[in-house]
Design goal:
Blueprint lengths: L1 H20 L1 H4 L20 E3 L5 E8 L9 E15 L3 E10 L17 H37 L1 H12 L1
Helix pairs in contact: 1-3, 3-4
Length: 167
């Protein structure tokens, strides 16, 4: 049972880091792009059944524009979108999901300026996890250097560094 929890936690961490690494690919919109007509837009509902009761094999959304045409816009996979660099190196324009022009899809809603909250959340995950990795690398480097000095010098230097580490 304990191993199952350990593996589950490890899989969850790998999944979270994978989402952060591929955030631009997973984002339907540019996180800084503003859609002023959609200020505080609620989350877009994904439908399988249209208003007339017909079932669709492909999920779709309705237009969010005021006075929209009320026609379904299919959710497309591997669509072209804003340019980004995958893993910070490879130039790309493909995104995992998107809709045709004429409709918008804010899966987590939009903020005051009409920016997609999902795209902003994914972009923020890159920054947060990058800061966490930088803090871990810095603490590892400082621990390695101080431990090496304490081990090689010994005596009062070792005691001083070990007591500072405990503090």
């Amino acid at each position: 049972m304990r191993q199952l929890r350990t593996y589950s936690a490890a899989i969850l961490l790998v999944l979270i880091h994978g989402v952060a690494l591929f955030a631009p690919f997973l984002s339907p919109y540019d996180p800084v792009a503003q859609h002023r007509d959609f200020s505080y837009a609620p989350p877009t509902r994904i439908h399988w059944i249209d208003r007339s009761g017909g079932f669709h094999l492909r999920p779709f959304v309705y237009s969010s524009a005021a006075g929209g045409d009320n026609r379904p816009y299919p959710i497309r996979f591997f669509v072209r979108g804003y340019p980004y660099r995958l893993l910070g190196v490879f130039p790309c324009t493909r995104h995992i999901i998107g809709v045709d022009s004429g409709a918008t899809m804010f899966l987590l809603g939009a903020d005051l300026y009409g920016r997609d909250q999902l795209s902003r959340l994914l972009e923020g995950s890159q920054i947060s996890l990058g800061a966490a990795w930088a803090a871990a690398a810095l603490s590892l480097a400082l621990g390695l250097i101080s431990g090496a000095i304490a081990g090689f010098q010994g005596g009062w230097t070792d005691d001083l560094i070990m007591r500072a580490g405990e503090i």
